[in-house]
Amino acid sequence: MPIVARILTLSVVVGVITGLAISLYVLATRWLAEFLFLGRSLDTLTSLPVWYLYLVPTAAIFIVNWLIDKDPAVREYGVTEIANTVTGNKEFITLKGLVLKIVASILSLGSGFTVGNEGPSAAIGAMIAYKTNQLFKVPERFVRLIISIGASSGIAAVFVSPITGIVFAIENIAYEFVQRLIGPIILAAIIAFGIAYQFIEPIVFRYSVGHVFQVGYVAATLLFIPVILFFLFIYLTLKNHIFNRFNHAVLNRYGKWRNPIFAILGGLTVGTMLTFAPFTVFSGHEVVTALINDKLHISVVLITIVVFLRILTTVVSIYSNAVGGLFLPLMSIGALIGYGYAEVFGYYGFHVEPYSFAAIGAAVFMGVVMRLPLTAIVLALEITYDYSVIVPTGVAVILATYFANLNFNIRKLKATEIKVSIEEKECQYGKEIKEK
Predict the structure, then answer these.
(1) Which residue from 252, 261, 241, 227 is spatially nearest to 337, judged by alpha carbons?
(2) Domain extent at residue 75
(3) Do 109 and 191 lie in a common domain?
(4) pTM
């Protein structure tokens, strides 16, 4: 069979298997959460004993860290990382490692930690594609393409967004090109569209919705950029500086006890939030869906409190070794910021829809932190189909990324960063013991 035919056939097989696997993975996460918290609704959480709300996340994160000790690859995911591992002839994640990763992710998500499904979903798809290729025997030089086919399938399935999955894979494959050139390209294209729209009638499928561009949203977005930058600085300072220094201090002082200490910290944090502020835990899927569909109305004061607490729980979840992605947690933070901003903006007589800015904030916050500007725009497109959301998202994600990078060297998140620093300290700790 010709190579092209083999790749196309492999794509069909991978798509079918990945779609079923991701559906089972997501449903298993929901089932566990409902089992542990008797439905996981706000009503059931408030009716459960306080000691139980602390016990569940603490026990779960200890099990997750035990699994990571058994196989450190449980913490590793990402299209680029996996592809580089394979092309560099390094040890690829095993089937056993993938199973442990899925179990660890289900435990992390189901017990309330603020992580998402997309990281493990990309790994699941990548593993399925890699293993499926053993049947089709596509040459080694196509391994990055094969890994990307699987990873994009995983992302498309978990978000139920096909174009987002495609762009996610492309942006990871061509990261070096995208990092250098995509920002100016997006900014110029978005501005040119906004101007031409005022004079030229676009080709529009009239049965669709949302193809109306309101120029006022761009002005509101320019004022929104300093607001979202403020919260981005808080998140990045907490994650990259405060907790990073605390992490190194614990490693230097306690060595191999680092993981249990952070597991206790994570369990106590999530338990406290489950008890007093349930909106601040879990992936944030419900929060994003409710805000962009105008189904949730909360005061600006409460929104501000929830944003700060979700930032805290997200950072604690990362350092506690909770297994999962950051798309949804970051989107939930951005959605809350955008919704609250629009509420305040409207209070002073300027009309913008809070649910529209919830979508803008969700895409921008995720796009800046994850260094995925094109994925952010496509995500805004797929969840809204609204030019008044897509254009401001393009402007905001590029300018916010530029200003954020003046103070923070934002890199694409690698799950191995914390693990590597831990292993280095453990090796150093072992050498010191031998010397003594």
Answers:
(1) 227
(2) 3-175
(3) no
(4) 0.85
